[in-house]
Amino acid sequence: MKNRDNFVDYVFAVNYDISRIQSESGEVVIEMVNKGFANRIAQKFFGRPKVSHITLEGIGGFVFTCIDGNRTVYEIGQMVRDKYGEEAEPLYERISVYMKKLEELGFISKI
After folding, report:
1. Rounded distance, CA 13 to CA 11, Å?
2. pTM, 2 dp
3. Strand, coil or helix: what is 109?
4. I need a labelling partner for 10 at 20 to 30 A (CA). Which of 25, 46, 67, 77 fits?
């Protein structure tokens, strides 16, 4: 039998080791510590920073602030629709791609 999970029913949580700051303008800045052997080499020889700052603007920053470990993707989508209206369309396609990328980067995880 095929697994028929629906992405909008998933619940995500921000990983505990992610440090973030929200500016007054609504941008979310994630501070990512560059760990590992390759990163140490890049830091020593190529001047790479020990901490990278990744800015999430607009809808992306808003979605990130809505991820709390309790809300489903559907509920987050409704919050985005309420705030951004037609600007957010195609809503769930955008949110699913965005959240999958955040999960791939290790910023959030599926509960």
Report:
1. 7
2. 0.82
3. strand
4. 25
